[in-house]
Amino acid sequence: VAVHSGRLEFTTQGDGDVIDLTDGVERVVQSSGVEHGVVTVFVPGSTAAVTTMEFEPGGVHDLREALERLIPREGDYEHNRLNHDSNSHAHMRAAIVGPSESVPIEDGRLATGTWQQLVLIDFDDRPRRRTVSVTVVQ
Ligand code: ZN
Fold it and tell me: Could you report the per-residue pLDDT of 44-85, keeping only the tens digit for each?
C-alpha cells in the first residue's frame, strides 16, 4: 500500500463559510501519480466539516439556512453555559455533517459527479485558519 499526503490551507470567515476543496484535492491526487485508489479529506477541529454538494450560490444559501433551522445559532445550550462559550451550534453542526469524506480515484481523477464538489464548511462563530489533510491511498 502506498500513501501520499498533502495539506490545503485556508482562511475562512466562519459562520457557515463554504469553501470548494475540489481543485486542491485534485492537485494532490495528480501529484501523487495514483491512477486507482481512494482519497480521504479530513479537517481537524470540532467546529468545521467536510462534505460534498453542488457548489453554487443557491445551494450554499439553502444549506446554510437548513442548518440554521435545524440547529439555530441562538439557543439554551449547555456547552455555552458550562464553558462560557458561544459556539455550541457550531460543534453540533460539525458533528452532524462530519469531518471527512472518502472519494474513489479512477484513471487519476476524482470519481465524483459533475455537479458534486468537495467542500469545507466552517461553522465557528469567528474567522479561522484551517488546514485540511488530504491522504491518497493506492
Ligand atoms: Zn465551543
Answer: 999 999 999 999 999 999 999 999 999 999 999 999 999 999
The three cell numbers of residue 133 are 489533510
Determine the distance separating the centroid of ligand 1 and the alpha carbon of 89, expressed in angstroms.
Answer: 9
| Ligand 1 ion: residues within 5 Å (CB) | 85, 87
Whole-angstrom Cα distance, residue 124 to residue 56?
21
Dihedral of alpha carbons 24, 132, 3, 103, sign: negative
125 CA from centroid of ligand 1 (Å): 9
Taking the whole predicted model, whether its pTM rises above 0.70 is answered as yes
Q: How far apart are the first and last CA of the chain?
A: 6
